[in-house]
Amino acid sequence: MSTDTTPNTSASDNTINNQSTGEGMQTSDTAPNTPHHQYYAYGEREEEWIPGTYREPYFWESSDTLPYSRNYYSLWEGLPMRKTISEAGLATFVRLATPISKEEYDRLTSIKSASQEADSRAEYMWSGPQYDDE
Length: 134
Prior knowledge:
It contains 2 helices and 7 strands. Strand 3 (39-46) and strand 4 (53-59) form a beta hairpin. Strands 4-3-7 form a 3-stranded antiparallel β-sheet. It is α+β, with helices and mostly antiparallel strands.
């Protein structure tokens, strides 16, 4: 068995062809082979209008897909609904992301959702529609 923990990628189908043993998920040479983990915290994020930071929650459905974090911005901002890790950034994600429980993922997701909604609301109040009261 190879000790290389870098996932094999295929540019033609834009997916990861990892073995189901979760080799790419190991964080040390002594970590046992475990099934694919789905919930991660990866990096910190801050919003433009709201002070403070939060840990970014990521969901990785299977080793055949790329991990993503949902965006909760208002639709009027026209942003994509997901921020997906690129194939080029996957090795860094695997090395640095922290596996978390479903409960912690839900907690981080609610923090991210509330923060992004508050950021959208603040931006809208600052630069939203202008009314001519005269």
